[in-house]
Write a structure and sequence with these properties.
Blueprint: E1 4-5, E2 21-31, E3 44-52, E4 55-61, E5 72-82, E6 88-95, E7 109-116, H1 117-123, E8 125-131, E9 137-149, E10 156-164, E11 182-185, H2 186-190, E12 198-204, E13 212-219, H3 221-224, E14 233-236, H4 240-245, E15 254-263, H5 268-273, E16 277-285, H6 309-321, E17 329-335, E18 337-339, E19 344-346, E20 349-350, E21 359-361, H7 362-373, E22 378-379, H8 386-400, E23 407-415, H9 422-432, E24 437-443, E25 475-479, H10 488-496, H11 499-509, E26 532-533
Helix pairs in contact: 6-10, 8-9
Length: 535
């Protein structure tokens, strides 16, 4: 009852799984800008624009730096980041005159650069040439954009405190208490600022709420990092009133940090910025139920003016995934067709007909391979997808054996009907749930896809025919018809929204850290303290 305690209970609850949105800060600098001014060097300013419904809208701008062709701007741009969206950005550099307004003359424009936020975070540091109007290079001018994530729960600490020779407030007081270890997130405790001063209060607990103040001390994470095996960190617990009144006052006891355990919780962007590549594979249904591709009613009909549903889904998802694969080469597979030269049915073939290398150059390369293969194959059946899932899972398993966070796979399966090999597919998904792999299935056409919902574990846990549950929920299924009246971006947003959480879940389960953690604060630090920050 009379044991010394802190006045405020330390936070023991941690925030839940990170959502897909993160806050990202962008810092900008330029080199070798054009010198537009006659007497002085250019006075540059960078304007950040975002694309909204096809229109470029100014989001923010930097300060103006006087007479400088190699500016490093202090202004930091803050944006919300969504993996499942193509977030188009444009950086425009202007020579600003006295009014600080953007000039309308061509010679005020020093160059611009367009990219996506996904490309920036995937590279972490992007350097691009500045272009003038009509795509002309602005001399040797370049712009550098550096990204850093600022949100998310990036870890928590478990702290153990004890004390010696505390002031005797009550006769039966425990003057050498050992407090129970507790956990607190780094964001809650110090906002990941290791120099932030923390005010720590020690009280004598009273069940009626009339706690007696014993003393206080101030600490920073920088100090607490000195803790190591066998060594403890301690602070004099001081009572300001006693310090003023008592000439020989030393302290009201000593508080000791006896143990500290750091638990890192990484975000999706930690892995991406650490160098994790996302490899995109598409698998296309070439069964006869799609209809003859030469017929305009076929789901595979190539209309020169309007992409079919297969192409719409492929481009919508592929456009986003391509930002996270540096070589921009994507595997493209087919199933359910008779293929040359012997026209035997295959449920796992490269649509470029190169069994040694099934990859295509960019999303456009996948589109061209798809269009080129249609006249060469015979649509057949049945709709078996287990072979392709097993194939990609085997590739992912090879990457998983590397034991680092260098690669993750996304398999997009486009099909016009319920799979025929449902039992084998369930087994394949259970096996694949142990690998760095997410599976997206898009149902094309007007078939009844009710039975396909079983593969999406949102309403329950998917199990193999023998009853073994998936390790992780890795499948997302949607019918394309639900998005017919919406933009392709809406489809991508729906099917990709769960991927960041699946990436983090896989690497966390394997206890694999990012190859190069984004937050340097988390490297050797952190030694938190049991208390409340100063106000």
């Amino acid at each position: 009852m009379n044991e010394a305690q802190e006045a405020t209970s330390p936070a023991t609850s941690l925030s839940g799984p990170a959502t897909c949105v993160s806050k990202v800060e962008l810092r900008v600098s330029c080199k070798a800008l054009l010198d537009r001014d006659t007497l002085n060097k250019s006075d540059p300013c960078v304007v950040l624009m975002v694309q909204n419904n096809g229109q470029w809208i100014e989001l923010d701008r930097t300060e103006v730096i006087k007479s400088n062709l190699h500016p490093v701007f202090a202004k930091v741009f803050g944006l919300d980041y969504y993996f499942e969206e193509v977030q188009k950005l444009r950086f425009e550099v202007y020579d600003i005159h006295g009014t600080h307004s953007i000039g309308t003359r061509d010679d005020d424009f020093l160059g611009g650069m367009e990219c996506t936020l996904g490309q920036i975070v995937a590279q972490k540091k992007m350097i691009k040439p500045l272009l003038l109007k009509y795509g002309k290079y602005a001399g040797k001018s370049t712009i550098t954009v550096h990204a850093e994530e600022i949100s998310g729960n990036n870890g928590y600490v478990e702290l153990s405190f004890c004390a010696k020779k505390l002031d005797d407030k009550v006769i039966k007081n425990n003057l050498n208490p050992v407090w129970e270890p507790f956990k607190v997130s780094l964001i809650s405790l110090c906002s990941c600022d290791e120099e932030r001063k923390l005010k720590c209060l020690v009280w004598d607990y009273d069940s009626r709420g009339k706690h007696d103040f014993i003393g206080e001390f101030y600490a920073t994470f920088r100090e607490m990092q000195k803790i190591s095996s066998g060594n403890k960190v301690s602070w004099d617990c001081l009572n300001p009133k006693y310090k003023q009144k008592k000439r020989n006052y030393k302290n009201s006891g000593v508080v000791i940090l006896s143990d500290l355990k750091l638990h890192r919780v990484y975000s999706f962007l930690d892995y991406i910025m650490g160098g994790c590549q996302i490899h995109f594979t598409v698998a296309i249904d070439f069964t006869a139920s799609n209809g003859d591709p030469r017929n305009s009613c076929s789901l595979h009909y190539i209309n020169p003016y309007q992409p079919n549903e297969y192409l719409k889904a492929l481009i919508a998802v592929g456009e986003i995934c391509q930002d996270y694969d540096s070589d921009k080469r994507f595997s493209a597979l087919g199933f359910g067709a008779r293929i040359p030269p012997n026209y035997e049915v295959s449920h796992d073939f490269a649509i470029n007909f190169n069994p040694e290398d099934d990859e295509c150059e960019g999303i456009q390369g996948v589109v061209e391979a798809y269009q080129n293969c249609l006249p060469k194959i015979q649509l057949y059946g049945p709709t078996n997808v287990a072979p392709i899932i097993n194939r990609i899972a085997k590739v992912a398993a090879g990457d998983g054996n590397i034991k680092d966070a260098s690669r993750y796979h996304i398999l997009l399966i486009l099909t016009d009907g319920v799979v025929t090999d449902m039992a084998d597919t369930r087994e394949a998904i259970v096996r694949a749930s142990y690998q760095p792999l997410s599976i997206i299935i898009v149902g094309v056409g007007n078939a009844d896809f009710t039975d396909m919902q079983i593969l999406d574990g949102d309403d329950g846990v998917l199990r193999s025919p023998k009853g073994e549950p998936v390790l992780r929920d890795i499948v997302q299924f949607v019918p394309f018809r639900d998005f017919k009246t919406a933009s392709p971006a809406a489809l991508a947003k729906c099917v990709l929204a769960e991927v960041p959480g699946q990436v983090v879940e896989y690497f966390s389960h394997k206890a694999i850290s990012p190859m190069s953690p984004m937050r340097e604060l988390l490297t050797p630090i952190l030694s938190p303290v049991a208390t409340t920050p100063t106000e």
